[in-house]
Amino acid sequence: MENLYNILGIAPNATPDEIKKRYRAMAMRFHPDRNSDEGAQARFNAIQKAYEVLSDAQLRKDYDQKFNDRIVLDAEAEAYELWRSVFAFNGVKV
């Protein structure tokens, strides 16, 4: 399960205004019309999906419940993915 908060680069306790502000900034940065990089379209789609879930109060509550109740089968892989997403968010490829 991908972490939608990591996709937008926000904390799980972010306010709706913070989510909207971050979504707009990232959507402009990765929009296919503005960014011709190879992975821009996929990144833009992930940003849209994350915003759709996190901007709706009920969907966000359901997502948080599912995410917090999941069983971590490979903690090392999850930690690596978290660090990779932090670096990728800042433009560093790991």
Q: How many separate structural domains?
A: 1
Low-confidence stretches: none
Summed over residues and divided by their number, the pLDDT gives a mean of 87
The CATH superfamily bears the name DnaJ domain
- Spatial separation of the terminal alpha carbons: 20 Å
From N to C, what is the helix and strand string?
HHHHH
| Topology, number of strands | 0
Task: Indicate the percent of residues in helices.
Answer: 55-70%
Which second-level CATH architecture applies? Orthogonal Bundle
Radius of gyration in whole Å, from Cα? 14 Å
CATH classification, class level: Mainly Alpha
Global shape: globular
Secondary-structure-based class equals: mainly alpha
Per CATH, what is the topology? Helix Hairpins
Fold blueprint:
Layout: H1 4-8, H2 16-30, H3 40-55, H4 57-69, H5 75-89
Helix pairs in contact: 2-3, 3-4
Short description:
With 94 residues, this protein is mainly alpha-helical. 68% of the residues lie in helices and 0% in strands.
Overview of this protein structure:
It is built from 5 helices and no strands. By secondary structure, it is mainly α. It has helices at 4-8, 16-30, 40-55, 57-69, 75-89. The protein has a single domain (4-89), classed as Helix Hairpins (Orthogonal Bundle). It is globular. Helix content is 68%, strand content 0%.
